[in-house]
Amino acid sequence: MSNQQTNYPEGAAFYSALRTRYRIASVWQSLFLSALLIAIVTLTALLYNVIDGAFGYIAYEYKDAPAEFTSTPINELTQQELLVILKENLSTGAYNKLNNEKPMEERSQADLLNLFLERLVRIDTKATWSMTDSLLRGDEIRAEVAEKYPDAILEFRSWLTPQFLVAPMSSRAEFAGVRTAVLGSLWLVGIAILFALPVGTGAAVYLQEYAPKNWLTNIIQTNINNLAGVPSIVYGMLGLALFVRVLEPLTSGAIFGVTDSNGRTILAAGLTMGILVLPVMIINAQEAIKAVPDSLRQAAFGVGATRWQTIWHHVLPNALPGILTGSILALSRALGETAPLIVVGASTFISLDPEGPFSKFTALPIQIYQWTTRAQSEFHAIAAGAIIVLLVLLLTLNATAIFLRNRFQRRW
Amino acid sequence: MENNNYAIETNDLSIHYGKFTAVKGVNVKVERQKITAIIGPSGCGKSTLLRAFNRMNDFVTGCHVTGELLLQGQNLYGGNVDPVEVRRKIGMVFQKPNPFPKSIYENIAWGARINGFKGKMDELVEQSLQSAALWDEVKDKLQESAYALSGGQQQRLCIARTIAIQPKIILKDEPASALDPISTLRIEELMQELKKNYTIIIVTHNMQQAARASDYTAMMMIDDQRAGGVIEFDETKAIFTRPKDKRTEDYVTGRFG
Questions:
Q1: Whose CB has fewer CB within 10 Å in chain A, the N or C terminal residue?
Q2: Which residues of B touch A310 (CB under 8 A)?
Q3: Which domains does chain B possess?
Q4: For residue B85, which residues of chain A lie inside 8 Å, CB to CB?
Q5: Domain of residue A74, residue span
């Protein structure tokens, strides 16, 4: 070491200062780690809570024992046997009504079995238990059921079954399914994306590639950024005023000759969702377009391309993976939104599949919301099942986004 | 036709960014089928001037040009001139190789196609690659990505792409600065070939390159208002052996700054 005077700590002082620096660093590191742990614990709790509700014991009684109708065990009944039982035991009026909805002979065995259980045997749910209770307190539950409901059947049930996915809405939790809601949700996000993808991309291309950089563009840009943060219920109000009321002839399908509906249709809700995700869509497409390197634009201009040729042949194809990823994330948001749908007028009970843009509709989040507000605990169980369906749908969409991004991604 | 020896002339050409003047009062006459080098310290406006020649500065917000830029007597900044037409006649090769993220073949065919090329595309691609001394290296992999090529090959592909649209003038903005010495040498050799058919204007930081490869040299320097200008324009030999301006002498001999 030279004798030169320095203003830096040397020797012991240096090591002492270094230890302090490391100590501060490790404090921050553990703070970041605990933040991560909080996030992981929260997400795990969420998942656990949902799964906990979707599986578990159920105790139920038959109001009329199946033995009163047939001597065959329930699981072995054939379609023909069920037809006979239903015809004999249902009132003529009820039978004809069902037959009008769909001829009884054409219905599947599973369908008829449900009708048998729903209309004739009439299951009466006494109690349900969560998965944790069912697994940990099995003996207590069995004792409790034996004492309180001596006639009840106790079984461990997964509320999430293939039947749950394909069954339409029903007023009885045992027979209710998410089919109508899933179809409604798919229609909704389909319409939303058909509207928001081209409009959002177009606006982004204009803002990034054409608009002059001046105060007006700045104001527009700031407003788009702010719109992305507006609460979804506000978009619901807009949708109600604009699509349900003002544009009713269009959204009800009246100008296309549809007569039996009002403005509260899939189309109105889908367009509302479309404007809801539009700002996010624009911002995201802008980012994707910004990420296309300027050298590529210059290369195209350098060989005498017009602005449009540059955009169409180079900017858009290279921004496409980003735009697609963003649109699927926007779509995920549309899939999960509830508030605007309530305002726009989603039906809470509807058992008919949506047939087109002018149908009445329900959607998964609406269905979940409706089921969780019911008093009976079995509805809470199927709500948990529906949440799992929604989560799986969302994860599928996000996986698609990642797949598309990797598939089309280019490097420069 | 007037001034037949000159490919391009500037008449008091100035380039402004908003209120700031970046390049001021340039008067140069660039000879046909010669290589003209623009040299000068960083930030003196070399690239800005070069980009003004094919109106690439049009894309820079707030940039505007005063004075005249004459191509065969026509002012390229005149009101009735379309910048797309200018860039079709005056091609540009950039500092960093920037091939399109497409196949080698498409890199050349695209520019031709959008400009309405009617001849045989395969022949054009081969000729252009031949002229850029790249054909032998890529003839068996024309459909492969241009990004699979080395930096030097990519830069020659960019030159081939520019040749393919048959411009009158080729502008090169430090075309070899991102390349190794061997690739640089190949680009320089290529320029000597190309000047048989094209007028070339090149911006370079490399004194030896300017001395070796160019016929004329424009020396640029900023004044006390930070506006760049051409302080000396002469045959390269003269600039490097008996410069008239003291600043040029300091710069080319490495005594600058």
A1: N
A2: none
A3: 6-252 (3.40.50.300)
A4: 304
A5: 54-158
